[in-house]
Design brief:
By secondary structure, this protein is α/β, with parallel strands linked by helices. It contains 5 helices and 6 strands; from the N terminus they run E-H-E-E-H-E-H-E-H-E-H.
């Protein structure tokens, strides 16, 4: 069974914890009082991701990382052995579009992750009126898969999109394992 370690990163108050709770099945309801994550929270669950060649379920660890830069010294330890990175941001906050470039540089570019191991989630908070349109992303970010999430209106769409992403991560892990095994044999 594969074990996927997925980091949820992004600016403060972008909705990382709400998404992580929902996707892990920790909670079905959305909203509540904002409480910033201190360091990291790890949510564990089993999943059968969509599109993964392996029909077996996989163990998933969602690492809900604080968006506070005071925890920056811990980030290398958080990145160790990560299988994928999800950058969550609030498209209603203009500074988040610039901030996600920093998150990309620190967590994705530094680890040389493949595009299919990464996901951008434009998280629309309850009551936001932003249209799901094209966002003005930097060119290196526009190559990454992007989904819009609205847990109030379309929660199952968000869940399905995440399972597809998780399937891509598992396929990448499987291909990497096969390459390692072949290199040992030859």
């Amino acid at each position: 069974m594969f074990k996927a370690k997925i980091l949820f990163i992004g600016p403060n108050e972008s909705g990382k914890t709400a998404l992580a709770n929902f996707l892990s099945g920790t909670t079905e309801n959305v909203g509540g009082e904002y409480r910033p994550t201190q360091g990291v929270r790890i949510l564990e669950f089993e999943s059968q991701p969509e599109g993964s060649g392996d029909s077996m379920p996989c163990e998933v660890e969602l690492w809900d990382c604080s968006g506070d830069f005071k925890f920056e010294s811990c980030w290398p330890a958080l990145m160790k052995d990560s299988s994928g990175v999800v950058i969550v941001f609030n498209p209603d906050v203009p500074s988040h579009l610039k901030e996600i470039e920093t998150w990309h540089s620190m967590f994705i570019a530094s680890q040389s992750l493949h595009e299919n191991q990464c996901l951008l989630i434009a998280h629309h908070k309850p009551g936001s009126g932003v249209e799901e349109g094209r966002l003005p992303l930097a060119s290196h970010l526009s190559r990454l898969p992007l989904i819009h999430s609205n847990l109030e209106e379309e929660p199952e769409d968000v869940r399905r999109a995440f399972w597809r992403y998780l399937g891509n991560v598992i396929n990448t892990m499987s291909e990497s394992r096969e390459r390692e095994e072949m290199s040992i044999i030859t």
